[in-house]
């Protein structure tokens, strides 16, 4: 589709609205989404701006204030509405093409002599808000203040770091509390009393220097959620992130809502040929694993050569070397462990066509990232896994940019900044651990925790969750050097395979030993064949909080489908209405068995093959805490 952008005189739109609804006061401005399903009203009353959102005629968010200079009266000096429609292609992602169509209300403002502009966009799946100002006096204290007028009966869920996500919180229950015992982290997911689903988050933080990550608090007096992020930089010019309100009829559709990518800044890199999404094997959780031939994995050259051999044999793009491959750090220099010949490993990987990712732990000291990234590039690394850098927004922004300058992928470890939308601008920001990573925490090892994180944490962007444990029984013995010491990895091997598809990422890190995958090579086929990050289309077929999720992703004419169920287990009907009519397809099923159970028999599975066509219904039978996978491709017969 060709770009098309045209200007519509805002007052013509406004007068037309008045003719249909004469009760709308003159200080109210109306903006509708292209399909008319979303309607925003912006009211200007007594020097205060407030907004409301309706979906299909039902009020979703009631009258809520917003400002860039809180406690300052504002005047509206001009308005105009523009419409925009375009199709663009990300470097990698859940879709090969993304439609960007919206109507935008641009509001020129005067905050007691200080000019500012408010941009409001109405999409078919929600709305976006951003302020900009080119000049303001030092005495003024900017802050992106925004209220969210939810219903008292709405239920809220939110991330909780590496712990089980919090919720459901019913807003009316908060009125009876003396204090609110929550840290309101982004993204929030709200189940409304109208059976709709809302997500509150932000995007394009990378373009908003001076702002921290959005956070929320509940104002009992107003009965509203509030975000009020102060502008911390000095200077007179500012751009806020985009504050987003996503609205969908089905909770799973929040995961495929493209507004966070559409509002992000366009691609900032001229050359992206070096950015390759893919899978990686990883050494950290394998230390102490003894293979059938008696070899025990550790931090040493021989272990790493075995990983590289496995990656090369199975078409796995990367090998990630985690912590302790070095002993000391100075500016632009790292002292290698005497157990490891890194140059030999790098040379061998290059010979085998496998790229190496190297870990860096900032707890070793900040010795200057300007020197760090070029040094990693000189070592031959294709990317860096950055650990323990904290939630520093400006540091993270600069690390993404500097890694791009050295043509390095970057994977942020340990509760990083959720830079939603950044993969459009800097697609080298390949993934981040904004969740509980497999075996990393002892607090969130349940099937329920996974489903919650898949529906909540994943909304902020690609996740590094390290799914794909195949030697579940071995891990639960507690004999791995870097694994849990108690039997608390609650999953099935088929669920582990499904999770590698369900959790979207540009880098899927599989954490088990090569031998564990070789022993179950028929099941590993599902992971091996997946083209990570190169999806043409993504659908969430089923999703229910605390119950199940089923995800389908297409690459060319092939579909990969992964489903998981909470502890009771159950069946999910997978309707193959997305296949092409008149074509025959081969299908491979990777399934739990009748005996499979996440607590008692987690490694029981079966693989079978068949044929399907458009319209067929597959009843995916899933064991308690288990999973189900399908690989569908055009028949070769």
Automatic annotation (TrEMBL):
Oligomeric form and interacting partners: Monomer.
Record-level Gene Ontology MF annotations: alpha-1,4-glucosidase activity; carbohydrate binding
Stretches assigned to the Glycosyl-hydrolase 97 C-terminal oligomerisation domain: 534-632
Cofactor(s) in the UniProt record: Ca(2+)
E.C. code: 3.2.1.20
Glycosyl-hydrolase 97 catalytic domain mapped to chain residues: 286-433
Residue stretches making up the Glycosyl-hydrolase 97 N-terminal domain: 31-266
Protein name: Alpha-glucosidase, family GH97
Calcium recorded as keyword: yes
Keywords: Calcium, Glycosidase, Hydrolase, Signal
InterPro entries listed in its UniProt record: Aldolase_TIM, GH, GH-type_carb-bd, GH97_C, GH97_catalytic, GH97_N, Glyco_hydro_b, Glycosyl_hydrolase_97
Domain of life, source organism: Bacteria
Signal peptide positions on this chain: 1-21
């Amino acid at each position: 589709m060709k770009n098309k952008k045209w200007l519509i005189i805002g007052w013509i739109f406004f007068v037309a609205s008045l003719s249909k609804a004469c009760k709308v006061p003159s200080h109210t401005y109306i903006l509708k989404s292209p399909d008319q399903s979303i309607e925003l009203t912006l009211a200007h009353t007594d020097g205060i701006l407030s907004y409301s959102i309706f979906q299909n005629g039902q009020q979703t968010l009631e009258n809520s204030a917003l400002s860039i200079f809180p406690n300052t009266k504002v005047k509206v000096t001009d308005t105009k509405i523009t419409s925009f429609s375009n199709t663009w292609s990300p470097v990698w992602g859940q879709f090969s093409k993304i439609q960007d169509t919206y109507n935008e209300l641009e509001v020129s403002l005067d905050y007691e002599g200080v000019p500012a502009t408010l941009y409001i966009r109405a999409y078919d799946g929600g709305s976006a808000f951003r302020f900009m100002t080119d000049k303001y006096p030092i005495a003024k204290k900017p802050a992106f203040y925004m209220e969210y007028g939810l219903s008292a009966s709405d239920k809220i869920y939110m991330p909780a770091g590496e712990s089980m996500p919090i919720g459901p919180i019913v807003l009316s229950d908060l009125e009876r509390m003396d204090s609110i015992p929550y840290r309101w982290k982004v993204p929030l997911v709200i189940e409304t009393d109208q059976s709709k689903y809302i997500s509150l988050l932000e995007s394009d933080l990378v373009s908003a220097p001076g702002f921290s990550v959005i956070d929320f608090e509940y104002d009992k007096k107003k009965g509203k959620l509030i975000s009020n992020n102060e502008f911390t930089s000095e200077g007179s010019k500012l751009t806020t992130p985009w504050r987003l309100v996503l609205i969908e009829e089905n909770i799973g559709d929040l995961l495929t809502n493209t507004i966070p990518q559409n509002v992000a800044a366009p691609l900032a890199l001229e050359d992206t040929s070096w950015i390759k999404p893919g899978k990686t094997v990883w050494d950290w959780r394998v230390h102490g694993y003894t293979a059938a031939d008696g070899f025990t994995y550790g931090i040493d050259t021989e272990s790493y050569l075995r990983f590289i051999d496995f990656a090369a044999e199975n078409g796995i793009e990367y090998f990630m070397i985690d912590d302790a491959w070095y002993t000391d750090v100075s500016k632009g220099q790292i002292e290698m462990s005497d157990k490891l010949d890194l140059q030999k490993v790098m040379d061998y990987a290059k010979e085998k066509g496998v790229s190496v990712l190297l870990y860096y732990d900032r707890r070793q000291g900040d010795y200057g990232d300007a020197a760090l990234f070029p040094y990693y590039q000189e070592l031959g690394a294709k990317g860096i896994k950055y650990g323990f850098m904290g939630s520093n927004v400006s540091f993270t922004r600069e690390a993404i940019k500097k890694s791009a300058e050295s043509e390095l992928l970057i994977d942020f470890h340990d509760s990083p900044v959720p830079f939603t939308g950044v993969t459009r601008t800097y697609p080298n920001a390949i993934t981040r651990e904004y969740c509980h990573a497999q075996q990393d925490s002892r607090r969130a090892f349940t099937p329920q925790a996974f489903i919650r994180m898949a529906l909540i944490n994943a909304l902020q962007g690609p996740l590094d969750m390290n799914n794909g444990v195949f030697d579940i029984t071995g891990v639960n013995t507690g004999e791995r050097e870097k694994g849990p010491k108690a039997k608390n990895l609650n999953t099935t091997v088929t669920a582990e395979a499904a999770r590698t598809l369900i959790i979207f990422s540009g880098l899927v890190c599989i954490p088990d030993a090569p031998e564990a995958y070789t022993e179950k090579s028929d099941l590993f086929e599902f992971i091996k064949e997946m083209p990570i990050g190169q999806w043409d289309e993504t659908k969430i077929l089923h999703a229910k909080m605390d119950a199940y999720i089923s995800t389908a992703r297409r690459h060319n004419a092939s579909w990969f489908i992964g489903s998981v169920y909470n502890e009771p287990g159950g069946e999910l009907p997978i309707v193959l209405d997305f296949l092409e009519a008149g074509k025959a397809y081969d299908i491979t099923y990777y399934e739990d068995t009748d005996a499979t159970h996440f607590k008692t028999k987690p490694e029981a599975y079966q693989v079978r093959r068949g044929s399907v066509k458009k319209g067929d219904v597959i009843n995916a039978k899933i064991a308690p805490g288990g999973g189900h996978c399908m690989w569908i491709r055009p028949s070769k017969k």
